[in-house]
Write a structure and sequence with these properties.
By secondary structure, the chain is mainly beta. It has one domain. The protein has no helices and eleven strands. The strands form four sheets. A four-stranded antiparallel β-sheet has the order 5-11-6-9, with no helix packed on it. It is globular, with a radius of gyration of 17 Å.
Amino acid sequence: MCRARTGHYQIVCIHTVTTKLDTTSPNMGISTSTHTSGACRAITPADGVDFDDLGVCRAIYIGGAGDISIDDIGGETIVFVGVQAGSILPVQTSIVNATGTTATNLVALY
């Protein structure tokens, strides 16, 4: 729902958030209609190990520039090269590998 205040040109929008796990697709993706995070956790990269018990995150905040190696939700290892500090990498993962990761101050966004 959106509404505008006359004279001030202020627009207020309220969005419904829907999150679901699709276990029928080969990628088993999580779909969501929001851009905010309900929880955030610091990530300590470790090869093949979940970084916390909250499951698959929706994105990763990068505090210090570098490369990020993740295992995606399909089990493939992917390296994102040259990720800039202060950016948000919109990936669904629960694993950030130490091998291949040079970026620092990583935060999982749920």
